[in-house]
Amino acid sequence: xxxxxxxxxxxxxxxxxxxxxxxxxxxxxxxxxxxxxxxNLHMLRKQPHRTLQALAAKYGPIMFLKLGQxxxxxxxxxxxxxxxxxxxxxxxxxxxxxxxxxxxxSGSKGIGMAQYGWYWRHVxxxxxxxLLSGSKVEMYGPLRRKELGMLVKSLCNASASGEVLxxxxxxxxxxxxxxxxxxxxRTHDNNRFNLEALVDLVGSAGAFNIxxxxxxxxxxxxxxxxxxxxxxxxxxxxxxxDDGGGGDVVTRTNEEVSSEAEGEIDRKRVRKKECAIxxxxxxxxxxxxxxxxxxxxxxxxxxxxxFLTVEDGIRKKVNKLRKPINEAxxxxxxxxxxxNYDDDDNSPQKKDFVDILLSFLDQPMDxxxxxxxxxxxxxxxxxxxxxxxxxxxxxxxxxxxxxxxELLKHPNVMKKxxxxxxxxxxxxxxxxxxxxxxNMPYLDMVVKETLRLYPVAPLLVPHVSRNxxxxxxxxxxxxxxxxxxxxAIGRDPRVWxxxxxxxxxxxxxxxxxxxxxxxxxxxxxxxxxxxxPGAQLGFATIKFVVAQLVHxxxxxxxxxxxxDELDMNETFGVTIPRTTHLLAIPTFRLIAEAASDKE
Length: 599
Ligand code: HEM
Description:
It is found in: Membrane. One of its GO terms (molecular function) is monooxygenase activity. Keywords: Heme, Iron, Membrane, Metal-binding, Monooxygenase, Oxidoreductase. Heme binds at residue 532. The chain is an alpha+beta fold. The protein has a domain at 118-228 and 316-340 and 349-588: CATH 1.10.630.10. The protein is built from 22 helices and 10 strands. The protein has helices spanning 2-19, 48-59, 78-87, 99-105, 118-130, 134-139, 141-160, 167-184, 196-206, 210-213, 215-218, 226-230, 254-288, 314-338, 353-358, 378-393, 395-409, 411-425, 441-453, 486-490, 493-496, 535-552; strands at residues 62-67, 70-75, 164-166, 251-252, 463-464, 469-471, 474-476, 481-484, 553-556, 583-588. The strands form 3 sheets. A 4-stranded mixed sheet has the order 1-2-8-5. A hairpin with a 2-residue loop joins β6 (469-471) and β7 (474-476). The termini are far apart. It binds protoporphyrin IX containing FE (HEM). Protoporphyrin IX containing FE binds at residues 111-112, 124, 132, 387-388, 391-392, 395-396, 399, 456-457, 460-461, 524-526, 530-534, 537-538, 542.
């Protein structure tokens, strides 16, 4: 009898719990209150990685936000990152379906933004084994050596006349050349191919697009809102832009740079004026709806939307770019199919990424797989080419720029590094060889310390949950976007002690932390299934370039600027480059003949 009564009691309690769930199904992670329609978007401001760090201090390392209509969980501690990227890796292995990617690729092909599944697994495997494996990284060694030799040569020429160099621009060009050559076997300035459009698209694909977060606004096809996130009066743009970030000025004398600085002030004034006009337009648009014809303006929060012009909305822009990009990629593929590389002695390495991918064209992606008989198509190859350019293009430049900035700010670290390299290379009568890098532990620490403070992708690339998951008692619904704040994790004083904000490479002296995703205190390349497959290549390139620049030259800041005066502000985007370009004066320090070593 007692047993029956107990049974009934348990049954009744179970029914009550089921009807009134005070359980995990309702317990979302803590977070700030969301506004209708825009949710918490207005809180992100210009530096979302910093804002999210501050919010996490209040709400905890697993925090819930609503970005527009998109439920989002922000992860800000190593322990939490491990839960999402290791323990429940498979549950969070999807990517968001961004409008640009969907529009351009008509359904996410390639790797970076592809949905988790059979297709992604096989394309990723193909790239990891055939393009980015250790042996392939080695195979592209001569290319890195040659391009770096050319950079050293041009720096050397400039240093002879004591010029102030725009190191940011030079590094960008170097990185562009090396990436294009590795992927396509040619440089971007080969005008048979319209690659500028490709770079433009890659920029749009990475930009914040309001339509992804508030779909109803998508019908207006606004230009990317990252314009406002990035807007700070000295916004950087790509090559040849007129906003002070142009790629046309490579080397300048002190005088030229001073007059340019004046020009910059003028440009800032003009920009301020333009912004004021646009803010008026916004206010009018907020009141009356649409602005003048062909130009839409919108505004609901002064912080989030500084200005928004729509000469070409993202969708329109992508549609316009689709044809020239497709033509450029087709040209490249045809050119590869028609080239007999045995006759081409100028080729630094016989095979670039396109050659390798073409050798798998029309073959089953997995011959052992009975169920899926997908063969590698031309479209697949084009998507991978774009992925590789997009992923490799800005990442290394930004990292090298930050290492050089920190070294200029800390001359004692620069000296110590020069000393180590000189010892490993055996003097100052020759340039660094890539195989000597393994004997440079301090270089390793310097690069790690820089990536800790400036992870190139501060919020990684968003993940999306594939299932309903309960983590730490919080219920996370399927299709929730997951943002990992790698920037906040790298600066967490609980992990890195009170001097977490300080550049101090020696912290790694007795702590050989795995930078490639095995240690969640430090994840500049992400971790797990969606972690960066180019990490080894990226890390090797950064170290080689930094070693060469530091070994071949002494560096100083221009105009008698002190180390403390060097601007170290970052601009938020998919990557976090310096807000202002890095200017410096190099002095060649090797015995003269070594300059021509790598011609
Ligand atoms: C300093 C250099 C680099 C850094 C810091 C970096 C960082 C990252 C990060 C943070 C992610 C996202 C990880 C995640 O979502 O959890 C990523 C993904 C990716 N990276 Fe890199 N990366 C670098 C260089 C490269 C290079 C050189 C390549 C290839 C040539 C590359 C190819 C990729 C690809 C294809 C993905 C997407 C992976 C996927 O979604 O499955 N990366 N990278």
